[in-house]
Amino acid sequence: MASIDPDEVLDKAWADKSLLEIPATPVGALKGVSDRDGELLQEAFGAKALADLAELKYVRGAQALASLDAAW
């Protein structure tokens, strides 16, 4: 199973969230994703929270294709 440090991917304002709270965190909490970017992701894909973004078929497809590169 992969591990990740939430401090590396979340803005400092969200760093104190528990692991149980993180899936419900707004997409704009990701480092490099502005609040406006989060709004656009919600408009385009319905992704309001990180869990929504992670479950998108487009994201899962991209992850699967990217992992093919690692397998070669």
Structural write-up:
By secondary structure, this protein is mainly α. The protein contains four helices and no strands.
Largest sheet properties: none
* Range of strand content: under 5%
Order of helices and strands: HHHH
Q: How many β-strand stretches?
A: 0
Question: In angstroms, what separates the terminal alpha carbons?
Answer: 20 Å
What best-fitting shape do the alpha-carbon axes yield?
Answer: globular
Structural class by SSE content? mainly alpha
- Please tally the helical runs, counting DSSP H or I stretches of 4 or more residues: 4
Multimer state:
single chain
Low-confidence stretches: none
Q: Could you tell me the mean pLDDT?
A: 90
Specify the helix fraction band. 40-55%
Question: Radius of gyration, rounded?
Answer: 13 Å
Keyword list:
mainly alpha; 50% helix
SSE order and pairing:
Elements: H1 6-9, H2 35-45, H3 50-55, H4 57-71
